[in-house]
Design brief:
- This protein is an alpha+beta fold.
- It has one domain: Peptide Methionine Sulfoxide Reductase, Chain A, CATH 3.30.1060.
- Helix content is 28%, strand content 23%.
- It contains five helices and eight strands; from the N terminus they run βαβαβαβββαββα.
- A six-stranded mixed beta sheet has the order 7-6-1-3-2-8, with helices on one face. Strands 4-5 form a two-stranded antiparallel ribbon.
- The chain is globular.
Length: 168
């Protein structure tokens, strides 16, 4: 069952794992995800643009907002996917994309989400991974410009910074 239709029974999750194009690509393919959008979170500038993020010190990360049906996919399974589609051990970006806007982070909306992320990090650390992913409180999400949305679908290209590595 693929829950791509919009309904009132949805939740939101926020993940930063490098360039948002690849993160969005993988989440949009997942059953239970209604929509994944590229955007920015965590900085001090209101309504930032992509140019602001790249060329000014705004403090934002490239983030994907994941609108999902919790009856089809759990927050924990989304978080597992997040840890499998990027390198959570890289401290300075993701793959060849280096810079603060590309850091690994999860923006949590509740103590329950925070606990789930901490537990998953603990599992990864027991597997000898030195996880650099930050756990941050949810902040205002700013949607990126239209040309960033579903970038790989529009261009027919495939992610160059992201690939799925089963870790759980």
């Amino acid at each position: 069952m693929n829950a791509k239709k919009d309904n009132n029974d949805f939740s939101l999750a926020y993940f930063a794992g490098g360039c948002f194009w690849g993160v969005e690509y993988y989440f949009n393919k997942e059953d239970g995800v209604i929509e994944a959008l590229s955007g920015f979170m965590g900085g001090h500038l209101e309504n930032p643009t992509y140019q602001d993020i790249c060329y000014k010190d705004t403090g934002h990360l490239e983030v994907v907002s994941v609108k999902y049906n919790p009856e089809v996919i759990s927050y924990e399974n989304l978080a597992k996917l997040f840890f499998e589609i990027h390198d959570p051990t890289q401290t300075n970006g993701q793959g060849p994309d280096i810079g603060e806007q590309y850091l690994s982070a999860v923006f949590v909306s509740s103590e329950e989400e925070k606990t789930i992320i901490k537990n998953l990090i603990s599992i990864l650390e027991k597997k000898a991974l030195h996880v650099a992913t930050k756990i941050l409180p949810k902040a205002t999400f700013y949607e990126a410009e239209e040309y960033h949305q579903r970038y790989y679908t529009k261009t027919g290209k495939t992610p160059y910074c992201h690939r799925r590595i089963v870790r759980f």
